[in-house]
Specification:
mainly alpha, 2 strands, 3 helices, single chain, about 50% helix
């Protein structure tokens, strides 16, 4: 992937996350509060940890009209989170970012 393609991918991602934050702000805020609690309890947090916690409380995070990628808005640039590493806990053992405050 060229630098220009990568820049376009990041720009498209950031625009999509911005729309998600705009239209799903309550869900994003709930997920952010969940992420804060999990990070406090475990020292770090991942998007799958947030998703699992929300689902365990009966909060729908994916399905018709709700793409699970909205969870990226929780850790979006400027949110105060910093990536501290990677953990192979994503779908099919893919690495996911570990976040801390």
């Amino acid at each position: 992937m060229t630098t220009e393609q990568l820049r376009f991918e990041y720009q498209a991602r950031d625009e999509a996350l911005g729309l998600l934050i705009k239209y799903r702000s309550e869900l994003i805020e709930l997920a952010r509060a969940t992420a804060h609690r999990l990070a406090y309890n475990h020292g770090y947090v991942t998007a799958p940890m947030v998703r699992s916690d929300l689902e365990a409380r009966g909060i729908r995070v994916a399905g018709p009209g709700l793409d699970p990628r909205w969870l990226g808005g929780v850790f979006m640039r400027g949110s105060g989170w910093r990536r501290i590493g990677w953990e192979a806990t994503g779908s099919h053992g893919r690495p996911v970012a570990m976040w801390a405050r």
